[in-house]
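S.,

Sequence below, as promised.
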Amino acid sequence: MDQSGGHRPTCPDVNIAFHLRFRYMMLMAETLDITKLTTEERLDLIGKLWDSLAPEDLRLTPGQEAELGRRMASFGTDANAAIPWEDFDKKLDNRRR
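The prediction came back faster than expected:
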């Protein structure tokens, strides 16, 4: 129990609440016809949906964990070989021309 005398939600309670909230948002999306939203409005909605997720909702697969570990190890080893984003962006612009 928490200080107010109520029960703290357990993991299944959180999952149920998340799924109910997700289902409600999907129903709202169908009702609102998101295809009528501007690109900016849809991107804002995506951001709000992403921000509504809790860290425990975002689990990596074992393959993703392994790839993340590989990339972090590579970054630590090759940190001196990294180039600033601005330089990389310029290279991309030059390739597009």
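Residues 60-97 form one domain.

Coffee later?
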